[in-house]
Write a structure and sequence with these properties.
CATH superfamily of the largest domain: Tetratricopeptide repeat domain
CATH class of the largest domain: Mainly Alpha
Number of strands: 0
Oligomer: single chain
Signal peptide: 1-23
Region (Disordered): 231-253
Number of domains: 4
CATH topology of the largest domain: Serine Threonine Protein Phosphatase 5, Tetratricopeptide repeat
Keywords: Signal
Helix content: 55-70%
Structural class: mainly alpha
InterPro entries: TPR-like_helical_dom_sf
Distance between the termini: 86 Å
């Protein structure tokens, strides 16, 4: 016979569900078929479950387990077993009860995802990753637009060493969260970039890194993001195990000029960090004969407390660049004159010099002149032109130049475009 609504409706509400779970099936499902003897035993168990007398509960459980012979009665029994196991803190009993409910096929669709989540969490904690994977796959199928499930599935895939799948799922989680009009957690972007880097999936890593600084433009995030891009232009890193929250990247591009341009973007974003960054950048600039910019980097490091003037290495680079920078500033006018009638290389050198001394508007004019000369590298020049215009506060012009960059530098140009979105359009030179 069908279960009585009076006797069985509202038997129990499982922890973690947003709505009470009734033993009466919804209208879209058939009514539960429970005999009179089964119903009497289950009602007695319901009463015992609501109390705190463990002996009475155990007796009622034994009687109900004997009486519940039909699948519907055993489904209701499993629900009450879950309630009792939960009140006792019996994790194994809860897991067995949820298993029985799910296996019955009688759980209403709206209540199934929390039950599966309960089991997936327990399986993960117990190291049963294959079982957790199957459960999360079922959850993702039931709720394909749930971003949190996708993010959890990505974490599990990463734990199992399946990085490509992990990247796919964390990417989907980000897409779903964005489509829902919800803010994507910072940790998701960081995890995505780290997973892509660890899996040597550099294009995806760069895209996630750029999305990170677009949403969370902190100096630390800018540093990590640009280091991911830097690694994408370097020899492939060795495979790593694990999946940290932040990508751990150190490779340097073979293209020394590109490496300088990456550090220029880091400096603009306030992402240079510590003595090593400042000394390395200043040394690279000095080696490239960009003495004005090298001195500016040393001065900035000192003013930010990143460099200690009392240290020998700092004194050495400071001495190396200070006098040279003074001489270089005096020669700027001559560089500009030679650039007008000289080669593309001479015009570029003049533009770079003005950029290094912080004269960004003048540098932009010279970069534009360089583009008109034969033999110029349009992508390199447009990138530096965009950077100079950006630092001069000429946003619209900067965007035009940066959008013109193609090839390996296009991603770096895209990072400058992200940086531009948060800058005021006022002269800074």
């Amino acid at each position: 016979m069908a279960a009585s609504k009076v006797a069985l409706a509202g038997l129990i509400a499982l922890a973690g569900l947003t709505t009470p779970v009734s033993a009466q099936a919804p209208q879209s499902q058939r009514a539960l078929s429970i005999s009179a003897s089964e119903r009497n035993a289950l009602v007695a168990l319901q009463t015992a479950a609501a109390g705190s007398d463990r002996a009475a509960q155990d007796a009622a459980l034994a009687a109900a387990r004997t009486a519940a012979q039909g699948p519907d009665a055993r489904y209701v029994l499993a629900r009450l077993e879950f309630q009792i196991a939960q009140s006792r803190g019996d994790a194994q009993g809860q897991a067995a009860a949820v298993d029985a409910m799910v296996a019955s096929g009688l759980v209403p669709p709206s209540e199934l995802p929390p039950l599966l989540a309960n089991q997936a969490s327990r399986a993960y904690s117990a190291g049963q990753f294959e079982r957790a994977d199957a459960l999360l796959a079922q959850m993702a199928q039931l709720q394909p637009n749930d971003a949190t499930i996708a993010a959890d599935y990505a974490q599990l895939k990463a734990r199992r060493g399946q990085r490509a799948e992990a990247v796919t799922w964390i990417g989907r989680a980000i897409e779903l969260q964005t489509a829902a009009g919800q803010a994507v957690p910072e940790s998701w972007y960081l995890r995505a970039a780290a997973l892509a880097y660890d899996g040597q999936m550099m294009p995806q890593g760069v895209a996630f890194a750029r999305a990170l600084v677009s949403a969370y433009p902190t100096p630390t995030n800018w540093r990590d993001a640009l280091l991911v891009y830097r690694a994408s232009q370097s020899p492939p890193p060795p495979p790593r195990t694990g999946s940290g929250e932040r990508p751990n990247v150190t490779p340097r591009p073979a293209d020394a000029q590109l490496d300088l341009d990456i550090k220029r973007a880091m400096r603009a974003a306030g992402a240079l960090e510590g003595e090593r960054d400042y000394l390395e950048f200043a040394d690279q600039l000095a080696t490239a004969n960009q003495m004005g910019e090298a001195k500016a980097v040393v001065d900035e490091g000192l003013s930010r407390g990143m460099l200690d003037a009392g240290e020998a290495a700092v004194r050495q680079i400071q001495t190396r660049v200070t006098a040279a920078a003074t001489r270089g500033r005096a020669g700027l006018a001559g560089l500009r004159t030679r650039a007008a009638s000289g080669t593309a290389a001479q015009a570029l050198a003049a533009a770079d010099a003005f950029y290094g001394y912080g004269q960004y508007a003048e540098a932009a004019t010279l970069y534009q002149a360089t583009l008109q000369k034969s033999g110029s590298d349009a992508n390199l020049v447009n990138l530096r032109l965009g950077a100079a215009l950006a630092l001069a506060g000429r946003r619209a012009e900067a965007e035009t130049a940066l959008h013109a960059v193609t090839g390996p530098r296009a991603d770096l140009a895209a990072f400058w475009l992200v940086w531009l979105t948060r800058q005021p359009q006022s002269p800074t030179s």
